[in-house]
Amino acid sequence: MASADKVRVNQEIRASKVRVVEPDGSHDVVETDEALKRAREHDLDLVEIAPDANPPVCKVIDYGKYRYEEQKKEKRQRKRSKSMQMKELRFRPRTDDHDFNFKVDHARRFLDNGNKVKAYVQFRGRDIIYKDQGMDLLRRLIEELQDLAKIDQAPQMEGRRMVTILAPDKTK
User: Which residues form the Translation initiation factor 3 N-terminal domain (predicted)?
Assistant: First the structure.
């Protein structure tokens, strides 16, 4: 819709000469007034397709149909482009095996849906002395998910958290 609004039609075309593409596919360079006259003969509009070309390219088509086609094309593109979300998993340095496996299943589901996973180990108070346990936990998580994920960010400390980011791997 945004690109269709910027298109010049009929009298809005400013160039003195334009390359006109007729409905039958033939094209030639003519004065803008001549191009407008040809468009009126076919009961269609003169639509500027490529304004940056030298001379600008205009097509003799129905402008309403052209806008409709452009909107459909943009809608298809928006539908295809999927926005990726970041899902978070929080662990503690001494997270139990059952809880760990439960969260790994969640991470698998998130990755299967095409989302990134940000896993972090939260250190509170004196837990900060267990950084090695936190690193082992995140490495174990990465190992469990290596069949369907790739590492976006390796485990590293951010304040009192040890963070890693995993992204779905399209090749796997």
Answer: 9-76
Query: What is the spatial distance between Cα 19 and Cα 72, in angstroms, rounded to a whole number?
Result: 26
Which amino acid makes up residue 14? R
**Same domain as 58, residue 99:** no
Residues 97-137 have pLDDT tens digits of: 999 999 999 999 999 988 999 999 999 999 999 899 999 99
What is the spatial distance between Cα 43 and Cα 121, in angstroms, rounded to a whole number?
Answer: 69
Number of CB atoms found within 10 A of residue 161's CB: 14
3-state SS, 83-126, equals CCCEEEEEECCCCCHHHHHHHHHHHHHHHHCCCEEEEEEECCHH
Q: What CATH code is carried by the domain that includes residue 42?
A: 3.10.20.80
